[in-house]
Amino acid sequence: MSRLLVTGASGMLGRAVAARLVADGHDVRTLQRSASRVAGAHDIGGSITDAGCVRSALRDRDAVVHLAAKVTITGPLAQFEEVNVGGTRLLLDEARAAGVARFVHVSTPSVAHHGRSLTGAGAGPADPGHARGSYARTKATAELLALAADDPAGLRVIAVRPHIVWGPGDTQLVGRIVDRARSGRLPVLGDGAALIDTTYVDNAVDALVAALDADVAAYGSPYVVTNGEPRPVVELLAGICAASGVPVPRRHVPAGLARAAGSVLDVAWRTFPLAGEPPLTRFVAEQLSTAHWFDQRRTRDALGWTPLVGLDEGLERLAGWTARQAPAVAP
Amino acid sequence: MTGASRPPADVLAAGGIDPRWSRTLEVGPRSWHLLDNGPTLDAEPVGTLLCVHGNPTWSFLWRRLLAAGARAERPWRVVAVDQLEMGYSERTGEQHRLAGRVADLGALTDHLGLAGPVVTVGHDWGGLVSLGWALDHPDLLAGVVLTNTAVHHEPADTLPAPLRVATARGVLPVGTVTTPAFLETTLALAHPRLEPAVADGFRAPYRTAERRSGIGGFVADIPAAADHPSRPELDRIAAGIPDLDVPVLLLWGPRDPVFSARYLRDLRERLPHADVHRFEGAGHLVVEDADVAGAVLRWLDTRDAPDAPTASDEPYRALGATLEERAGDDGTALIELAGPRSRRVTWAALAARTEQLARGLAASGVRPGDRVALLVPPGADLTAVLYACLRLGAVVVVADAGLGVQGLTRAVRAADPTVVIGIERALVAARWLRWAPTLVSAGPLRAGVARSLGVSASLDDLAALGRSSTEELAWPNPDADAAVLFTSGSTGPAKGVVYTHRRLAAMRDVVARTYGIGPDSPLVAAFAPFVLLGPALGATSASPDMDVTSPGTLTARALAEAVRAIDAAVVFASPAALRSVVRTADGSELAALADVRLFLSAGAPVGLDLLEAAATLMPSAHAHTPYGMTEALVVADMSLDELRDLGAGDGVCVGRPVAGVRVALSALDAGGEPTGAPDHQAGVTGEVLVAAAHVKDRYDALWVTQQASARDAGWHRTGDVGHLDPDGRLWIEGRLAHVLVTADGVRTPVGLEQRAQTVDQVVSAAVVGVGPRGAQQVVVVVQPEVWSHGPVVADPVLAAAVRAALDGTAVAAVLVVEQLPTDVRHSSKIDRTRVAAWAERVLAGERARL
Q1: How many CA atoms are closer than 13 Å to the CA of B267, on its beta-carbon side?
Q2: Shortest Cα–Cα distance, B809 to chain A (Å)
Q3: What is the model's pTM?
Q4: Cα dihedral value B745, B751, B753, B759, nearest 10
Q5: What's the rounded Cα separation, in Å, for the pair B769 and B393?
Q6: What is the ipTM for the molecules in this complex?
Q7: Pfam family example for this protein (chain A) (predicted)?
């Protein structure tokens, strides 16, 4: 049994990681602003930018899985920097001071993405100067900080980059797709043929747990985690819509036009006090019209991990979950 | 005046040049800069490569050779000098003459104390300087490598056009010194374009007019005129090199406006023992455009390896022997059916015509070993002139129109014939695309046309000339070159394939032996290579009324007519031709086809359905599909009966090797490379290797390709991938170039495509990989029965059906296209390379057309 801290356990992935670690018999503490609702975990409510909170959360811990981040698509850069960069720096400093042995930093492949297609890419170096959007840029800075803190004689740090994590209860990808599909606002960009790889939530959980236990030789580097099953984006959207019981998108919009529209809306949402999220941002338009898939061989070797839940199986589980929710949301 | 200096660090870094290789050296009054990897070698070098650049480059040109030579095992010391007034060597403003350059280089190597063995390597005018050095140092010399260079100009010869401009009075100083125009023009000749850092590396020593003075001096030293001061040295070198008794390697970039094909021809004539490799697509800067360093080291390595035994114990009988024996036979040798008229030629007439043409060709100056391109459609004319060339010992170049004009031009130019014999259409192309110096028309031309095309004679003229000649013709040496055929070019440009007389004769024998074809089995051939074999086999032959370059034009009626005309026992047809016959059959041809005893279909995989359908038209015939390739026309054979009993497997079963042919496999490793030693173990997927007396002698002017294909002594690597089953049958799984390497391992396309084609609505399928090798994703591109202008990504139902059919292989995407592209020659092999390139773009979110 290890004594572990999971930050950001109120999100879909963080909650699932905490629950798995509890089930594996570990002593699990969580740190996030709202309740984790993970049975058997000890919640500490607070922000990773609060030094007092962070210090008490890290007391007597052997290892940390750091998921907490500001993940929204829009918002002022300063907020992203405060949480994603400042919070990570604070956690690393305090973890070192507390004598924590292992630190699993959860990152994203978009830290190394310049907006062009990634086809069979490896885990390139994080690049805050060229990453797209405030989230990716601040996450890139955070990953560089984290990996720079890796110390063979002290705190060991590993960065894991799950790509597009989805599953039952996901509000990020599945939630947005379902909302837009339901209101008829989910177009397919271009041919919808761009190959996109995603990660079913259970596989991401397995990978993070594997990272905690990985050979120390694997530490000090970033690893991309996906299902290793890229699909044309139109096929993915159709699969998620079908599993979620909403209409499958049929409207094709030229990819270039969508990117341009996204840029305009980005500016509008930055300039004017508009509510909620823009219907389309340039970042999202790029994500949906360029390929993103990765060479997984290095990750699988280093973590001793393989994805157990295939894409089709994941979609079936999502459909099952949707069916179980249906009575509750029916009018 | 400026002495030699070392290049700035950033220039060396741009070329990946180890700074320790760069040094300056004072030799007498001369001040040199040179690159020398000697100080960094870990082991005793095998020898030294002495590299001499041309104008206006510098030793930077040889940077990859320096790096390649500095390998751990069997390293070569590479010394690349900057010629005086060039690169970073001295600038004195002196005009150096060729003899002086040769002598200065000798003084430098004396100073270096170069011990043997030395192999010279030269490019452009550096080739000439290196040859001068080679002639002066016979004791040290172990070999000569030349790249796009020339040794001789007849004073009457015109200079290459770009140099004529450069040497014109008034242009010379402006073009070469005052402005960097000559330098920039040369750098612009690279294919593909030079990386900016590399181009800057070439420019670095020539930044000012003063530093460029040597470029002008070099151009001014080109000894074009008979009274030029460098002429005597040029003549000495030109006269001396035929006596060089060391191995020679000629590496050539054909897209060179300066040193065009005639200079390569001149070098080959002077150095007939040279190994030659033309890098198709490369140009004047061949050292930049192609892997010259790899080729040189490979060549040096093979110098030490013993040659594979090639001697054959089989008795030899010339391909044309039958024709001569039947010179008194009035029976039918061949019938040509074309349009409304047909032409019957007796054995006696064919033999006489062949003899006359052979003598006529000889009398008009064609010598044994000269190359003659035949651009004549199959028929009596082609047959006669082909056997005439073989009789004389002229090497026939048989390029078919199926390659397309561009492919045909590339092929003919690569073979570099001295004579083209063609129909009018081919002669027009031959004239304007400059395929050969001498043109002969197959049929009579109007006088005006003949004159405007510069056609010297017609076949009738040659025959007339032959009738008046009494010269006794000797039969050619069995091991001399006899023919150059071409691959279909479905994976890269078509390659020339050289056969000797002995190997052609062996090909005849394997066909005769395997299919029992001889005087008692008249044959109808609607498949190009076999049209020509009838007279060699002693079989009466007929070519049906069709456009042989377009196999889909053969109708059932035309086939029946040809069979009826000679009472044929054997029918050869490509799958596309056979498909067309089946499609156009209406029952009226059944009587004529009833007595055919054997039909063969080859050139591409033949489906069971097609063979069955053809068999109903020829009910008494045994159906066979030979498997082979341009490099070995018959390798294995499969009968319809056997095919019927065979279940599905991974790939297309092509049957067992025929008598006299050995087949082995070189297993693919985890990276998809055929690294296994030749082996016969069943179930192991590898590259198919063939050994037989009728395998090609070599690829033409493709030394590197030939080495790669013959790297296992005695075997030819086919580029096909497949496996043997426990009964010794060979299954073909695709082309080596089309093998996929996924994260889950190696995949071959044909078996997967067959499974995709079992899905309803799918007419044909191509399985290709996208992404980097080792992490490739499998993509299935299907052509549906009905194409509805729909989206390129298959609908979920079709995608699911295809994925289910390919169970066990993860499929990233199923795409739908109206039509899958196929090769030009057979219109049946899917062009997977093109499909893969298209899928790569589409699946990256780009717009692309297939």
Answers
A1: 26
A2: 11
A3: 0.87
A4: -110
A5: 47
A6: 0.89
A7: Epimerase
